[in-house]
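All the exercises in this workshop are built on plain-text protein records. A record pairs a protein's sequence with a compact description of its fold. Backbone structure tokens are a discrete shorthand for how the chain folds in space. Once this layout is familiar, the rest of the handout is easier to follow. As an example, a complete record with its sequence and its structure tokens follows.
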Amino acid sequence: MFGFILDYLVNVIVLCVAIPVTEKIFDCQIRGFDSLLTYLNIPVTSGTELMMTSAVIVAAAVLVMFFCLYFVPGFDRSLCYSYGGKKPNSLEAAYIQDILRDIEAAARDIPDLEIPELHVYISGQMQLNAFSIGRGSIVIMRPLLQALDRDEVRGVLAHEIGHLVHRDTIWGLLRFAAASVGQTAIQFLSLIASGFAFLALIPLFGFLFIWMSLFINAIIYGLQFILRIPASLLALCGSRQNEYDADAFAVKLGFGPGLYRALLVLSNGATDNMTLSQRLQSTHPVTRDRLKRIVEIMNGQKQV
């Protein structure tokens, strides 16, 4: 939830910069909600009106995503299809359902643990990967089924179900909705900058438009810094903790050994050779650290 709040605030800040620039260029008024400010007993000024407008726009995008997640039939399926996920063939379906029955049986032994209704899709992408998305969907790359044995696949699926149980995927999509607002604002400013760059070709007066284009591009770079640097670095801590928690969930169900072996196969030692820059940008912890924690939980050295 911390990552969502951070993304929400960062994108509100981005709009607080983008909206005045757009208003100035097109000589228009985008702001509103003065009556809402009055109702909330907040002084109505240009600054508060701008912040309220930005906050409402970002909130609207988040609410649309929330509505789609919980009230639009087939929304999860459409997300999986957008990533290349398709319904498994008969052999794959039987194999996966057998594994899911093992996981659900193990979950029944844990009080107050509810696993959502699961839907598994297979992607033909040539990667050793699997991911969960939406409220109860998992996408498995077909090469992963071929590279791992049954216990290892079970460990991976238990890990992905852990993300669904912890609602990491729901918060992730709500964060995506908030972030899309800031990205859209930056893309719109980029379009304006490109227009000024084109007008700069006009003889005699073109140099005026060059300065406008440079000014807007400077704003864009600043907004991209706000979006990418502080938000991503702080959010990565939550993303990495989510991975540890999903690993712990799989171990708690009794599938730690399979997950351990699966991580060895999937990483192939490459994760431990990342540079510092790559580690900072990675949403997943170093595999060595994940393996260490899995062993500690299985040996009772770390609490789940």
